[in-house]
Amino acid sequence: MLAGCATIVNDSRIPLTFSFSDGSSGECTFRNKRGVWSSRIPAQAVLIRRSDDPLLYDCTTEDGKMAEGSIRSEMEGGKLAASVVFWDFGITDSITDKHRTYQGNVVIPVTEKVN
Asked: Is the peptide bond before 42 cis (omega within 30 degrees of 0)?
């Protein structure tokens, strides 16, 4: 009874899948305040640590196109509210960020290579 609701039911990492808008392959580095991850794109799901800040990405396709941007962090509906009402006023979840999520299937926009 000492832990928050999302802390009990959520993993600290969530699987995210990524692809490029032009269907190409490449590599990306993802980062938030909880860590840094690198992956080939497209690939199996990347396990990303939940955080309340945006997930930043920096990518390069195999033909040299660049893409950078961010994915907004969102609060999972109802889980923090349950924590506030039943457990610890959301304190544990706000520390662990286990009540946060990113959208699951991300299409990264790729622009034409500038020569």
From this structure: yes
pTM confidence score: 0.72
For residue 108, which of 13, 14, 27, 9 has the smallest C-alpha distance? 27
Judge whether 93 and 100 are in contact, CB under 8 Å.
no
CB 31 within 8 A of CB 73: no
DSSP 15: E
Q: pLDDT tens-digit profile of 54-110?
A: 999 999 999 999 999 999 988 766 544 444 444 444 444 445 567 787 887 899 999
Long-range contacts, 41-46 (Cβ 8 Å, 24+): 41/108, 42/17, 42/18, 43/17, 43/18, 44/17, 45/15, 45/16, 45/17, 46/15, 46/16, 46/17, 46/18
Residue 41 is encoded by which pair of tokens?
A: 């794109």
pLDDT tens per residue, range 22-45:
999 999 999 999 999 999 999 889
Alpha-carbon span 54 to 69, nearest angstrom: 9
Tokens read off for 14: 């969530």
